[in-house]
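Give me a protein, keeping tokens residue-aligned:
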Amino acid sequence: MGFSCGIVGLPNVGKSTLFNALGNARAESANFPFCTIEPNVGLVPVPDPRLDRLAEIVKPERVMPTQMTFVDIAGLVAGASKGEGLGNQFLANIRECNIIVHVLRCFDNEDIHHVSGGIDPIRDIGIIDTELLLKDMETIEKSLDRAQRESKSGDAKKKKLAATLGEVMDAFDAGTPYRALPPSAERDELTHDYHLLTAKRVLYVANVDEAGATQDNAYVETLRTHAAQENAEVVVICAELESQIAELDDAEERAMFLEEAGLKEPGLHRLIHSGYDLLGLQTFFTAGEKEVRAWTIVKGNSAPKAAGVIHTDFERGFIKAEVTAYDDYVELGGEKGAKAKGKLRIEGKEYVVQDGDVMHFRFNV
């Protein structure tokens, strides 16, 4: 499934360094604005020790983790919504992503220029949020005029759309992003096709220096307070440190590096899992001699929906699913042991897939 996270932020906050560390992708990076013009795209495996444990039991020919797509979008500046700094192009890139990963510089370094002249993560959030909001206002304003004209026909649906867009526009005028509005399934449905930028969930990444990787500095503390007010999450990462970790191919070397740095795991793992959780995703597994593989689905998906992630024919011709809970599969040594103990279940179309399920689908087309 194509879930993507757009990495945004002002120029020179560490976006490309972070992106390179995520996928070891060598995105262009330099100490001046607009170095990244075209967005860099990387597929990043989601770390999951369960996959390795399944592989130890099954001993397949290959192991395939589930993946997320990260898009390194060029640095935005004030005026982006009006085209400043190629802003319209960059905002279009954000529109195509499922969530926004907002990187904020939270450390001092006189050798690295900051486009706004100093370090202030809350100010930087305001700059980006304003540009996204202005673009959304432009989108709604055009549609609202048309909706109001068409509502005069007396059509109930058109009147409802006009009223809803008017409410959204009022909120935007007050500086309220769409994601901060009270939940409303009806409003979400009516505005879905507008692909509003401020409707996207946001994950804040505090890019710190090495000292800040193990203990929050004042900038991070301020950011956490701000994020708490909007029920957002903060992941603290030293992008420079993570890029060094990504260069190490040997697992033991990585473990030693992390220990010396005072870290239990790479910050990138926390970022990937936070993005995964923010999108409301979960993992199920398929396990056979040829392949052990992790698959990404939305929490609450039925068995046929999960089957469709593998191939559309699986969903179309779904008959049933053979399901073993991950813990049972591991404890009993695989499919044969689970079946012998009655832990392999046969589930139908109504079954809601649980995180970690090991599944085999039967279908007919």
